[in-house]
Amino acid sequence: MIRKYGILPMKEHLTCMIMVLGCPGDFDKTMLVIKSMPCSHHSAVWIALLGACKKWGNVELGMLAFDQAIQLDHTCATAYVLMGDIFTLSGMQENAQNIETMRFKDAFSEEDQGNNVWVDVTGEFHSVFATKVTQGKGDIHTKVRGTATRILPICKWSTTWT
Predict the structure, then answer these.
(1) Rounded mean pLDDT of the chain?
(2) pTM (predicted TM-score)
(3) CA-to-CA dists, residue 39 to 2, 33, 65, 69, 90, angstroms
(4) CA 26 from centre of chain
């Protein structure tokens, strides 16, 4: 790209290369590109590889890509969902469930643990999460607690308020 067009490839260009090589299943070339990339420390690169691994059912390489992606960003839901899908499509339901459990456990850093509410509505978990606690009129905790009190009869609540 530099010689022909005078453009320095950015992470977006290289992530597209991962898709171009990975989607048809050429994982050897894909890994060569990743190893030679100056930007393999971006989670988007590994997410692109996870997408290709899902398409081809490549569990082993998918696990490598997943590990790299969550080391870079443990809150990236896309990595967890794709790895769970890879396991599910490969008939590895227990592993898929473990990934889902990891996603809920790792979704928030320890300092954020006190600012979320998990809601179980008919077997599906939903999260209400506040990244910044404000005081006074806009207090998210007061609003969420008020909502929780009103819908408590129809939901099972598990809170982690501090």
Answers:
(1) 77
(2) 0.65
(3) 16, 11, 14, 13, 30
(4) 24
